[in-house]
Write a structure and sequence with these properties.
heterodimer, A: about 325 residues, alpha/beta, five-stranded parallel sheet, 9 strands, B: about 425 residues, eight-stranded mixed sheet, 13 helices, about 30% helix
Chain lengths: ~325, ~425
């Protein structure tokens, strides 16, 4: 508690369920606040007390390593009591419905619940049943707002802006909540967004979401400032959506040759976990243009900002 | 006399038909360096390079070589039925200068290495051009799509599961969607296997009299209707591999009117034969899909004339004696056709059912266009793949004289009028009737 906060940004809403509906100012406010936490996280003494006495439950119906640990660290560094519940080790496995779980947890008076669920819309459904704040840590193929925010922070820190940049989001757009949240955020902030994928991995009507559509990497990466790769799930690369991982890598995997289609100073991003040799070549993933590790660092800061900004709006704040 | 490919050839005084230009004239065709230099009136002996072999083609037809979009060749895995060498000999004798071979081999042509194998074997053993189609689904299993991008890059000219229909509509939808990104043509056999059931010939009175189970035309139209809905959904490039009945033509017409990227093919067998030709259980006329009624056949011929059917193919399918000399229901389906496709087509011309231009367009120009191949035309600069045809000479089909390894021809002892006098591939004479 040595430094006073410069930002007094308050997210004037109870939940963060998605990027949809956030204004440009709200997004900028969250990113500004996150910048402060980036600095804090790099110090030896990382502890804050703004969430002291508050209870945060991480409720993960879908397994996650980085997002869950990132939220856990974020809460702990702000002084909250953090409890993790995951699908494999709880009553959720015993057949309890989502609604019953919500009601049960609500009775324990948490202040913040961070939820990941495999079904689109499930987080919003749960949010209606509880009295505290809910943060969406990913629901189905719908939204993953903190991922989009950490991507935006990474881009802003490297490029100094979001406005006017060309961002190519490449890969499994169809099943990706990361893509949807990023499309909304980047459009809100004035970036030009392109999606690049085989037609089998493009959702119907995606062009109506304010993106350009390219089906090959040469056209898709032309003039791109940012190349954002998405993970292709293993079960989708054996002939159902694409024929094989080798064909996918040949035509849509990011290697040095395809990266050269983008601007020479383009950043390479990936939300992780990566399939090296499927959607991205190791040389590129670990190369000079890659900011993939920085994305992970920004993840903790952004989640601290979200928890902090929501908690300022809580009762007794 | 086999001519050297090094010397230019003048095919003089021929009736030249080039469907790619609606050209039907009497004139000369000059070939040099493996390409057509000119095809027009009055090139004459004066207008040719020194050392040109002039061949008098007075009274004969010169046309682009045939491009057969559907032929089974037994390499790899069934060389006893047909090899690339034997198939290409049969093709050359029948005026076919490009064979599109089917992927239903053993193993199936479903990976780039097998495409490469077929192309190398063809290069070393075949006397006409051979291009493989590759499978749409792995192992022709109807479940997982193949590496359409890599297969096309390896040389597959289109994609088909051969005589198998993909019953899972989601698989078909995804294949059409994915193939579109590579501008790949999906060629699909449209027969619902559940509606085929145990049927062995066209459903109807004739089957009932023979005591054979029938295959209704709905087996075809149900699958075709489904496919064309999926083409509308996905915007893919699609060809119905073998339409056989009048109802299917209505379905195809609607799709074409709706500006879908759709084409249709029919086999020479379905254009020239009907279910009655099966007679006393002749297994050489057991085909899949089966021969239909005479009114269906007539409708198909009209559809070729109007261009509704784009392509005539041989559906060449060599079968051993052991698989054919069986009771009708147990015999294998299929007939050879590479060598007789053109002359069977000429029957329709001689009977006045079809004009020569429409026949040759469906046999050469349209398939080449749909496959993106350079043949099927006599434009200057086109590959010198062409045929000289004697339109009038009468002859009788003797299976023992056919060049295929298998002799299961449905035209056994049929009387024909007209035959191929010379076949030229890349400027070289590969067949000459003496």
């Amino acid at each position: 508690m040595t430094t006073g906060q410069k930002s007094s940004f308050v997210l004037s809403r109870r939940h963060l369920l998605g990027i949809e509906g956030l204004s440009r100012d709200e997004i900028s406010g969250l990113l500004d606040l996150a910048e402060e936490f980036v600095e804090l996280n790099r110090q030896i003494e990382k502890k804050r007390v703004s969430l002291r006495g508050r209870t945060q439950i991480n409720l993960f119906f879908e397994v996650s390593t980085r997002t869950q640990s990132s939220f856990e660290l974020a809460g702990k560094r702000l002084g909250a009591d953090v409890m993790n519940m995951s699908a494999s080790s709880s009553s959720m496995r015993k057949g309890e419905t989502l609604m019953d779980t919500a009601v049960t947890l609500n009775a324990m008076h948490p202040d913040l619940i961070v939820v990941r669920h495999h079904a689109s819309g499930a987080v919003e459904l749960l949010a209606r049943k509880v009295d505290c704040s809910v943060v969406n840590a990913g629901d189905g193929a719908h939204e993953h707002p903190t991922q989009a925010l950490l991507d935006a922070l990474t881009i802003r820190r490297n490029k100094g802006r979001l406005d006017g940049l060309t961002v190519a989001i490449c890969g499994d757009i169809l099943h990706s909540r990361v893509a949807r949240s990023n499309i909304i955020l980047l459009n809100t902030m004035g970036a030009r967004v392109r999606v690049v994928a085989p037609s089998t991995l493009l959702p119907t009507g995606i062009e109506r979401m304010g993106v350009e559509v390219a089906r090959d990497m040469r056209a898709g990466l032309a003039e791109a400032d940012i190349v954002m790769m998405l993970r292709l799930q293993r079960e989708r690369m054996n002939g159902s959506y694409v024929p094989s991982s080798s064909e996918y890598f040949q035509y849509w995997g990011l290697d040095e040759k395809k990266l050269a289609y983008a601007r020479p100073d383009a950043l390479v991003m990936h939300p992780g976990p990566m399939n090296r040799g499927v959607e991205i070549d190791s040389i590129v993933a670990d190369g000079a243009q890659s900011v993939i590790r920085e994305q992970v660092e920004m993840g903790v800061a952004v989640r601290m900002a979200v928890l902090e900004a929501l908690s300022r709006n809580l009762p007794n704040a | 006399m086999m001519l050297s490919d090094r010397r230019p050839i003048l095919l003089a005084n021929a009736r030249i038909i080039d469907p790619s230009r609606d050209l039907d004239i009497v004139g000369d065709v000059l070939i040099a360096d493996g390409v057509v230099r000119e095809a027009k009136r009055g090139i004459g002996a004066a207008g040719v390079p020194e050392g040109t072999d002039a061949i008098d083609c007075r009274g004969k037809l010169v046309a682009p070589g045939l491009v057969d979009m559907r032929a089974f060749i037994g390499e790899p895995g069934a060389a006893s039925r047909e090899t690339l060498a034997s198939a290409s000999q049969a093709a050359a004798a029948g005026g076919v200068t490009t064979i599109i071979c089917q992927p239903s081999t053993s193993p199936p042509i479903d990976d780039p290495a097998t495409v490469d194998f077929v192309l190398r074997r063809a290069r070393d053993n075949a006397i006409v051009h051979v291009h493989p189609m590759a499978a749409i689904t792995k192992g022709l299993g109807g479940a997982e799509m193949t590496e359409i991008g890599l297969l096309k890059a390896a040389g597959a000219v289109a994609f088909t599961d051969g005589e198998k229909s993909i019953t899972n509509a989601q698989v078909m939808r995804r294949a059409l969607t994915y193939a579109r990104d590579f501008d790949a043509l999906i060629v699909h056999h449209t027969e619902d296997p559940d509606l085929i059931g145990d049927g062995v010939m066209n459903d109807g009175e004739f089957a009932s009299r023979l005591g054979l189970l029938g295959v209704p035309t709905a087996a075809e139209t149900v699958m075709l209707e489904r496919d064309l809905r999926l083409v509308a959904l996905t915007g893919g490039r699609y060809q119905a591999a073998s339409v056989t009945c009048a109802e299917s033509l209505d379905v195809v017409r609607r799709a074409k009117d709706g500006d879908l990227d759709v084409s249709a093919a029919a086999s020479i067998n379905h254009l020239t034969l009907n279910e009655n030709d099966i007679g006393p259980y002749r297994t050489f006329l057991k085909l899949a899909p089966p021969l239909r009624a005479e009114n269906d056949r007539k409708a198909l011929v009209e559809a070729v004339a109007s261009g509704l059917i784009d392509v005539i193919m041989s559906d060449h399918n060599p079968q051993d004696v052991e698989t054919k000399r069986l009771p009708f229901a147990e015999a294998a389906a299929g007939a050879i056709g590479l060598e007789t496709m053109l002359v069977a087509g000429l029957r329709l011309v001689h009977s006045g059912e079809l004009n020569l231009m429409a026949l040759l367009r469906a046999l050469s120009t349209r398939p080449a266009q749909l496959l993106g191949l350079p043949g099927g035309t006599l434009r200057p600069g086109a590959p010198a793949d062409l045929i000289v045809v004697d339109m009038e000479v009468p002859w009788v089909v003797d299976p023992n004289e056919l060049k295929s390894k298998c002799k299961n021809t449905p035209y056994d002892e049929a009387r024909m009028q007209g035959r191929v006098a010379r076949t030229i591939v890349a400027g070289r004479t590969v067949y000459e009737f003496v």
